[in-house]
Amino acid sequence: PAGTSWINSSTLLNRINFVNGASQRMRPSSPSQTLDRLTNTLVDGNLSPTTKDGLQAFASAHPANTAGLLFMVLATPEFQMN
Q: Is 65 within 8 Å of 24 (Cβ atoms)?
């Protein structure tokens, strides 16, 4: 089952390490793969305002780093709790 009952420091670290490895293997993507597309696909667009602001700041500061943006989306609390 989803939710906080299965999350602890070990499982969360393992999930984030998996995401880091997967994002490093990501192929360069087309410019059409945007933050909106990633968040709609991975977290159904359900982000807190704080998380959304942080992701937008990262995307603005690193426009060519799609793998980094994927990592950031997959490391969000919203993804981890989904």
A: no
